[in-house]
Amino acid sequence: MIRNINPSGTVSWHKLRNHFQEMEYVRMQDLFAEDSERASRFHVKWNELLFDYSKNKISEETLRLLVDLAEEVGLKKAISDMFEGVRINVTENRAVLHTALRDFSDKPIMVDSFDVKNEIVAARKQIKSFTEEFISGNYKTSNGQKFTDVINVGIGGSDLGPKMVVNALENYRNDIGVHYISNVDDDYLYATLDKLDPKTTLVLIVSKTFTTQETIENAKRIKGWLEVGLDGVGVDRHMVGVTASYEEAVKFGVSTDNVFPMWDYVGGRFSLWSAVGLSISLAVGYKNFEELLLGANELDEHFKNSSFEENIPVLMALLSIWYNNFYGYETEAVVPYSQLLERFPAHLQQMIMESNGKNKTRDGYPVNYQTGTLIWGEVGVSAQHAFFQLFHQGTKVIPIDFIGFVNPFIGRENSNHDILMSNFFGQSEALLNGKVGEGYSEDSNNENLSSFKEFYGNKPSNTLLIESLTPRSLGALIALYEHKTYVQGIIWNIFSFDQFGVEYGKFLAKNIQSEIKQGIINKHDSSTSFLLNYYLSEKNH
Ligand code: F6P
User: Fold this and answer.
1) Is the pTM of this model over 0.90?
2) 507 pLDDT band (50/70/90 cuts)?
């Protein structure tokens, strides 16, 4: 059973606090000047991924104490508990087994006395055969044509992960159009439907619970659109349900053959590896979907088996805790130097902030230290022309993960890739070293202006340099952040796998919706009442 240990009461936390006094004003530039081997000391090379964390405000001693902290809170046991199907999601009384979805070994994975592997393997087979039938055109529309488009209707984890992966694997795509509807926004819904032909469109209704209002209401509108477009004939051939609630999907009108399973041991934000990722498989083919899973599985093995000193997700988590809890840096940026990873920060936001946005310890008391970091980001180089100015010369320190690829997917003669990557390397170098003294432009002779052109550097960053963006490396990259998230939750002594806050928001929205429908606004705080009354009076004017 997962232990309840307040990290701030541990010996290593106490030592880290003292150590922080020594480190607080240490400049990374000096650490590099003192140690020409620093980069070779602070990096991990694993498979096709190089993780350089030398540009951080750490010494060997910092690392040792952070690793001690991980050991003192029982991280090793917490990792094996997760993989072994222990009910570590205590508040929902569930196991946490997204890792089992990408485990291709013969080893059973028991939750209590039930082997979940059988149902996982059966679902993978179902995804494979449906994908093959669909792409080949054997699975036909209600009037015998080949499907041209797929709409994935889902929200949160039933949307962000698959959408991010399908974008990222653009170079592996077939010619099937894949569209995502998540928001309850008529303007966007109908703008999307107007461009599609219901006669050749398949709709995936993806909802673990099959009760999420946004998804179900959108699905109803889309089902209506199908009914009109198909003259009510064979509508069920055009619908697939992915859910843990088989009965609800069938009640909705999905044919029993077209329901794909989900299970309570897979959280929404960790579910793209299951049939929730069906849109990925349809867009890039089952083989590439499996490659994605295999990449994640390789990272799982690395996470499970490496010592903490060589363990990339553990190191990333520890560095983040060092900044969040000792330096007081509240946010972290993730900047992938690949346009195709445009949706990656959004996926991480749900994964990390929904998981670790918690303020109670595992025994239900308020935490007396900071937990979940704020995650944000955008792709480079574009981000440099948007918010990097604040990184360089602002008053806040924001640790950054730079993610880049050694080789582009398509090697061309006049490639821009070196330009992209020169920016990638140049930015972390500038953030480390800054620029004081001699100016960097012709205006530097003007003493009045030169101080504005100084920047002091000492801004921390991690660099993840990956061979190339493939389904396998993408799978590993996503899994890396999943495990970083888990490690942080363990150290912060919080439960990372529930989301009661979001659920309460859903509940309030439902009540307000019925007030709007009845035109009677109940008692709220004065601001909410004022806004609701204004909305009602202006509506349809
Ligand atoms: O946002 C809250 C949440 O419960 C997420 O955790 C989940 O991914 C999303 O809603 C969608 O839930 P469902 O798949 O059940 O429709």
Assistant:
1) yes
2) confident
**How many A from CA of 128 to the centre of ligand 1?**
25
- Residues with catalytic function: 354, 385, 506
For the stretch 431-443, pLDDT in tens is 999 988 755 555 5
From CA 369, how far away is CA 378, in angstroms rounded?
29
Distance 157 CA to ligand 1 centre (A): 6
> To test ligand 1's pocket by mutation, which of 499, 500, 506, 508 has the most ligand atoms within 8 angstroms of CB?
499
Instruction: Report the Cα 377 to chain-centroid distance in Å.
Output: 12
Give one word for 328, left, alpha or beta, with left for phi > 0 and alpha for psi -120 to 50.
left
Q: What does 477-488 look like in DSSP terms, one character per residue?
A: HHHHHHHHHHHH
Calpha distance 426→92 (Å, rounded): 46
Q: Which parts of 454-525 fold into alpha helices (H)? A: 471-491, 500-518
Buried b (16+ CB within 10 A) or exposed e, 127-136: bbebbeebbe
Dig out the tokens for 493 from the structure: 């002594």
Backbone angles phi, psi at 360, to 5 degrees: -120, 140
Bridge partner list, 89: 94
Q: Which of 407, 448, 447, 364 is nearest to 171 (CA)?
A: 407
Please calculate the CA angle 444-380-432 and round it to the nearest 5 degrees: 50
pLDDT tier for residue 132 given thresholds of 50, 70 and 90: very high
Cα dihedral across residues 229, 233, 239, 244: positive or negative: positive
Nearest to 333 by CA among 423, 344, 422: 344
> pLDDT-derived band of residue 2, with 50, 70 and 90 as boundaries?
confident
The pLDDT of residue 541 is above 90: no
Pocket of ligand 1 (CB under 6 A): 155-158, 207-209, 212, 215, 268-269, 354, 499, 502
Q: Which helix (H) or strand (E) holds 241?
A: strand 239-243
Residue with tokens 């000047």: 33
Q: Mean pLDDT, the chain, as a whole number?
A: 95
Is 70 exceeded by the pLDDT of residue 1? no
d(CA 107, CA 105): 5
